[in-house]
Specification:
Layout lengths: L19 H28 L3 E5 L7 E3 L9 E3 L6 E3 L3 E4 L2 E10 L6 E10 L5 E5 L3 E4 L5 H7 L4 E4 L9 E5 L2 E6 L3 E6 L4 E5 L5 H6 L2 E5 L4 E4 L2 E2 L23 E8 L2 E7 L11 H10 L4 E5 L7 E3 L2 E2 L14 E5 L6
Antiparallel strand pairs: 1-9, 2-3, 4-5, 5-6, 6-7, 7-19, 8-23, 10-21, 10-23, 11-12, 13-14, 13-15, 16-17, 16-20, 18-19, 18-20, 21-22
Amino acid sequence: MIKIDEKPTRKEPHKRPISPRKHRWLIITLVIVLAVGGILYSLADRYLIRHVQVVVADENTATVATGNANDSSSTTTTTTEVNATSDDWNYSSDDMKVSIEKVQTGSGSDQIAYYVADVQLTDASSLRTALADNSFGTYITENTSEIAAANNAILAINGDYYGFRDDGVIIRNGTLYRDSPTRDALALFNDGTMKTYNENEISSSELLAEGATNTLSFGPILIQNGEIVSDFSSVKIDNNFGNRSIQDTNPRTAIGMIAPNHYVFVVVDGRQDNSRGMTLAELADVMKGLGATEAYNLDGGGSSTMYFMGRVVNNPLGRNQERGVSDILYLTEGQGS
């Protein structure tokens, strides 16, 4: 018999079983990683990722269509001649008058710089709102000056930053986009009036029936029926991540009505050496002193921006650097029907 040499059997390395303690720590680590990842995604989804719900038609391209709708050559752009005069602080036409004044008060660390735009209109439709990137949704932002320029704005201020939250009643240029009553709000009407109100007490359908063209949902109300709202100590706008206290001195933006079609826009610089900002009580006093019978606080802080005739008038963030916002209030010519 011929013997064949047999190769020695190779031994498999011994696998040490994972101890229960190590197994438990692996599970805990995995759970922590998944939880942190979920939180980071949730924050990014809420505060960084754009969510477009509605794309708004661009109403600023005035066109007259003739002939075949499929023939691009049959659409002609029309322009309306406006008889207007202006300088760095004033604008006057047949339909509106705008006068801007810079006010500086106090000294040292108590200095305050703010800008007052007195606006008189013949047609309420000249006061409009615009959305960043012509889109309604959350975390869609552009600088106030970019939105203003895209909409041929003469004067603009930042709005309520509706895109930072998912509640409130949001009517823009006559269209209802969100109907989740939450807080005290402001309504602008087609007769040139404005009214502060509680969203839980007046429905969006009632507002539209009364001629509301725009609503803003931020607050608080500063002046109502000619009187300053007395207590700002318990003001609560929302609980979003990263909010500063709204009661402290801050940059501010506000709108007030002196009489129908006579408005006042105020933007306050803050968080800088030559302007500490204002408290809500101080802002209410300013609006009252300007003659406002209704006044409302809009989004402030780094958002507070006033734009006029192609330039930013104030000093956003103390660095002449704008912060992106979701919407603006603005004035433009030629919107009347």
